[in-house]
Design brief:
Elements (H helix, E strand, L loop, with lengths): L1 E16 L4 E14 L2 E7 L9 H9 L9 H12 L3 H19 L3 H4 L10 E4 L7 H7 L5 E5 L4 H14 L3 E5 L6 H11 L4 E5 L7 H10 L4 E3 L9 H4 L5 E5 H4 L2 H13 L3 E5 L5 H8 L7 E2 L12 E2 L2 E3 L2 E3 L9 E2 L1 H4 L7
Parallel strand pairs: 4-5, 5-6, 6-7, 7-8, 8-9, 9-10, 10-11
Antiparallel strand pairs: 1-2, 2-3, 12-15, 13-14
Helix pairs in contact: 2-3, 6-7
Length: 345
């Protein structure tokens, strides 16, 4: 068995802005675990919000010794151990390992998790940025039924964004404040947003401010969904009193196995569940899409926000996720990229 990896820069279609930062591109790491004629693929999209970076991922990959044949469970433990606490790296290793194992067993990952066929509509993200671009962004999102709007700057700015969007469309909106509000703003905004066809509000306050989140939950006419407070399954018992639901991201939780554990535990707490993402390519997005029939909401559009996705995987048909056929993740390398990126598999 062989382990290979390479960095790759994904270019945002528009500058991608949230309350904390704005990016024109992201550097990610592709991981490949191969055995004979089979190649398993994984993707690490590290986030500085969680103390991770591409350089940190690469340094850890360089420290990994040889890879030997393992059972599925042994491989899961190997991925966790060799990620050394870097969740995005564990996500890439574990995804590549499960992809390889499933390819060799000639079964799909969706079948492995017994997910079923009830694929969801995904939201399409309108990030913080030039307000003059909103009509163009709305036009680009015309095939999607649900919009996810990044807010969290201040009350006046956030209301202006929603007003501009409502001038263009009456589609259902999901709001993500990315920890940008205080309690007073949260109270005002949740009440105001409830009259503008908004489904829920994601992460209104700083992750450490659970006390105000619980207060807002008692007052808000809209459900509150945890993102930065929802990293792994161990977080769920501590936040269930303050949130109505959780957002699960592969790059935060580290593996589809942990994501599945979070789904099952959230169900026990009667919490709503959304699958989310970073800005990623089709490797990471396709991986998480395999679990989407088991949850309530999908926000799996990271690959739709970039211009140079080298892989073909999950597609969007009339706004709804559609998994590729085939074993493993069912991914293929876009032929247009094969000649330019010989290091992509």
């Amino acid at each position: 068995m062989n382990l290979n990896y390479t960095t790759y820069r994904i270019i945002c279609s528009h500058p991608f802005g949230i309350s904390r930062s704005t990016h024109d591109f992201y550097d990610i790491v592709y991981v490949y675990i191969s055995d004979g004629g089979y190649v398993g693929r994984g993707e690490a999209a590290p986030s500085l919000r969680y103390g991770e970076s591409t350089d940190k991922v690469i340094r850890q990959l360089e420290s990994i010794d040889s890879l030997n044949s393992m059972t599925l469970d042994e491989g899961i433990l190997w991925c966790k151990k060799n990620a050394n606490g870097i969740s995005s790296l564990e996500a890439s290793l574990s995804t590549a390992w499960l992809d390889l194992w499933s390819l060799k067993k000639q079964r799909s990952i969706s079948d492995f998790f017994k997910s079923g066929n009830n694929m969801l509509y995904t939201s399409f993200t309108i990030s913080i940025g030039d307000l003059d671009l909103i009509p163009k962004k709305i036009e680009e999102a015309k095939t999607y039924n649900i919009l996810k709007i990044k807010l969290g700057v201040n009350e006046e700015h956030d209301k202006n964004i929603i007003k501009l969007i409502r001038n263009e469309t009456d589609k259902l909106i999901r709001v993500d404040a990315n920890e940008g509000w205080d309690l007073d703003t949260g109270k005002k905004m949740c009440k105001w947003l409830a009259d503008h066809n908004v489904e829920f509000v994601e992460q209104p306050f700083k992750a450490q401010n659970l006390r105000d989140t619980a207060k807002l939950r008692d007052l808000s006419p809209l459900p509150l969904i945890a993102d930065e407070n929802s990293i792994k399954s161990s977080n769920i018992p501590d936040i269930a009193h303050a949130f109505d639901g959780i957002n699960i991201k592969l790059m935060k939780c580290g593996s589809l196995f942990e994501a599945k554990k979070m789904i099952d535990l959230a169900h026990e707490y009667d919490m709503k569940i959304m699958l989310g993402c970073m800005v990623e390519s089709s490797i990471g997005i396709t991986a998480m899409s395999n679990l989407s029939p088991q949850v309530d909401f999908a926000d799996l559009d990271g690959n739709l926000l970039i211009d140079n996705d080298p892989y073909i995987g999950v597609k969007i048909i009339d706004g709804k996720l559609k998994l590729p056929s085939g074993n493993g993740l069912g991914l293929t390398l876009n032929p247009e990229y094969k000649k330019d990126f010989n290091n992509l598999k």
